[in-house]
Design goal:
Elements lengths: L9 H4 L11 H8 L7 H13 L3 H21 L5 E4 L9 H8 L5 E5 L2 H11 L5 E5 L5 H5 L2 H6 L7 E5 L11 H10 L6 E7 L5 H11 L11 H6 L5 E2 L5 E2 L18 E7 L2
Parallel strand pairs: 1-2, 1-4, 2-3, 4-5
Antiparallel strand pairs: 5-8, 6-8, 7-8
């Protein structure tokens, strides 16, 4: 069910400079997850995306479940710091909610550049001393890693979990996405973890081509890539079993019993040794 504003009037939660007529990836993802901070353009886009690529709503929710399992694995492994790039609009199952249920002292830094995502994250985190949102473009790693709020909460001499989920496929080839991920990897201390998920181009290619064309009309064109390319984003990090897979198969709570590639999103978790 798609709601609006979580009890607030729209004018109370729309940043002044937001173009509500063009869909954005963060707000469309909010629609697909059943969130309430999106506009009619985003909802119309999400309906068309589901028509073109049946199951994209399920894929989005499976990706969210992968986030939960990856974060819980990091906590079980002793990681106590989290950096979430492209964190999106707050909805059920945010990283800090998962983390602070286990250990309220763990710092969490979110990063996004989408105005609605940033505005709502700030509202959500206003009274949380152990979590913050940095408004920045993920293509500027030095800005993010050196940001005062990042440095205030995270100690990069200690293990950090870096989450880059459903983000890199929105970074065009001209911006050298693999090199950007490598730059972030180099900043992580031994014992750190990297979680990545990305749209794989093996997933129903004809329908995916139509979906890619649809995203080209939004503010965030997307580029699905081969699963081998996605796996290479982990570099020399040691992969956590079962390795790089479609994320519906990454330590699932239950098996869905269908072709995993139908769910579009490929990824995994790696550890820096």
């Amino acid at each position: 069910m798609i709601t609006k504003g979580c009890g607030l009037g729209e004018q109370e939660w729309i940043p002044a400079d937001v173009d509500t007529t063009r869909p954005s990836a963060a707000r469309v993802y909010d629609v697909l997850l059943g969130g309430g901070h999106n506009f009619e353009s985003d909802r119309r886009f999400a309906r068309e995306a589901e028509r073109i690529f049946p199951g994209i709503t399920t894929s989005s929710r499976i990706n969210r479940e992968f986030l939960r399992r990856a974060v819980l694995h990091a906590l079980e492994s002793g990681v106590r710091q989290f950096l979430d790039l492209g964190s999106g609009i707050p909805t059920v199952g945010n990283v800090h909610e998962i983390v602070h249920e286990i250990d309220p002292s763990c710092p969490v830094v979110y990063v996004d550049c989408e105005p609605v995502a940033v505005a709502h994250s700030r509202l959500l985190l206003d009274d949380d001393a152990q979590a913050t949102i940095v408004q920045a473009d993920a293509r500027r790693p030095d800005t993010i890693l050196g940001h005062p709020d990042t440095r205030r909460l995270l100690d990069f001499d200690q293990p950090v979990m870096l989450l880059i989920l459903a983000l890199v496929h929105f970074i065009p080839d001209d911006d050298h996405p693999a090199e950007l991920v490598e730059r972030y990897r180099r900043a992580l201390a031994p014992g750190s973890m990297l979680a990545v998920s990305h749209a794989a181009d093996e997933a129903r290619p004809e329908e995916l081509a139509q979906l890619t064309a649809l995203f080209a009309t939004s503010t965030n064109p997307a580029t699905p890539r081969p699963s081998r390319w996605i796996a290479d984003l982990f570099g020399d990090f040691e992969m956590v079993e079962p390795g790089a897979v479609f994320v519906s198969e990454w330590r699932p709570d239950e098996h869905l019993g269908e072709d995993a590639s139908d769910y579009l999103i490929y990824g995994g978790v790696g550890v820096r040794r």
